Fold Cytochrome P450.
Amino acid sequence: KNLPPGPQPWPIIGNMHQMAKNPHIAAANFAKKYGPLISLRLGTRLLVVASSPDAAMEILKTQDRYLSGRSIPDALQQSFIDYYFVWARDCNKHWKSCRTLCWAELFSAKAIEAQSTLQNEKLARMLDFLNNTQGTVVKIEELIFTTLINTLSNILFSKDFLDLKDDETAHRLKFGLLKILENSVTPNVSDFFPIVGGLDLQGLRKDSLNHLDELSSFSDAVVKERRAQITKKVHVAVHEKDFLDRLLENNFTTAQINILVLELFIAGTDTVVTAIEWAMAELLKNQNIMHKVQAELKRELSYDSIMKSDLSKLTYFNACIKETLRLHPVVPVLIPRRALKACEVMNFTIPQNAQLWVNVWAISHDPKVWEDPNTFKPERFLGSNINFTGHDYEFLPFGGGRRMCPGLPSAVKSLQTILASLILVYDWTLPNDEDPKTLDMSEKFGVTLQKEKPLQLIFSRKK
Ligand code: HEM
């Protein structure tokens, strides 16, 4: 009844078979035929996909109030039910208070400034580690992951969770976090036919719960220890209090803390790692652009000043970051939303409980929106006011509206400092003298759009 147009669904399965491996690309191709707002049937579910700046604006701004629910995948139903942040079903009072608390303690300008010493310390440790890799092949995503986890775990708990030399624990934590994300987007009969949801036929719910239990063990012990200190009335000076102290002061239960921490780890590590990996791959492939960035960094910074400098003033370097996020939008269809109430978008009806994607990938690759969209061209951002703050609907790597990424300031700071240090301090080469021009840039669809083949590099310190 006045639904957006779309391809004819097959009986029972609907359009499931047409959305198999790369659903963001399949949906972008349907948009070329049916228009910027399309309907797809996935079993009994209706999925509406927006693929133009205007359609995105109607969803994220005009109807944001009614379209800001989250559709919780069956695989996470038991693990994340009604907790708290990324997967809060609607913008309820818990979600609001959590966002306010996280803003004040983690993401405000004051909080970011307060975290810089800690962030620099973890980054310096990563660079020291790289100095000792001497000609060996490094999976850079793993090092960055460990660095980000330790930065976050210190902000939250004043404690390192990982050791750069212990790949195994890092791998276990990363695997668990990624598996939970992967389960949430794996095509699941329980989502398409909720009537059989309780059966968990593919075992995804059980698997996510097992990972959640294992990952909770990282925070569980710290929370218990801190509660014991509070019972013993151990005095902690105000300036030494961390995020965990604030959560306990706000009467969060241990289960709630475990979930919130896990949500922050999931949302805040893989996204940044993926963005840096794509930026490095593009710079390797486009040596002329790499030379321009190197020249700018060398002119404006020294090794000692990277961590103290305001990197947002580096115009070409920041244009490279924006161009990476355009060409490789890390969260390609945003985190799926749900219509809390029926409403109209582009004169079509969006029924209550329909799932919505804003296909940022399609908008970023649309030649009607971006000239020569498949080419990495940072120059397009020079002298342009387009930014990722959620108001320019042709460029939405952090989403928009009330569910926009709250971690944006922290993400940008990490992207800038880690990438600038790696560029300024090292030369990077591919193993076996592989020609960077032939680097495989295939994508792997998921909540985050990863590089299918992780970047493996040899780092040598610049003379
Ligand atoms: C390059 C890095 C990052 C990118 C591209 C990114 C992108 C996104 C996107 C697209 C969304 C969904 C927005 C929407 O639905 O409109 C989101 C949500 C979220 N992000 Fe980020 N993010 C990044 C880093 C971070 C970091 C570092 C943190 C925190 C440590 C974080 C925390 C969150 C949270 C908690 C949400 C859920 C917000 C809600 O549902 O209310 N993100 N992010």
Q: What stands out?
A: The domain at 16-461 is CATH 1.10.630.10 (Cytochrome p450). Residues 85-86, 263-264, 267-268, 271-272, 275, 330-331, 334-335, 397-401, 403-407, 410-411 surround protoporphyrin IX containing FE (CB under 6 Å). The chain has a mean pLDDT of 92.
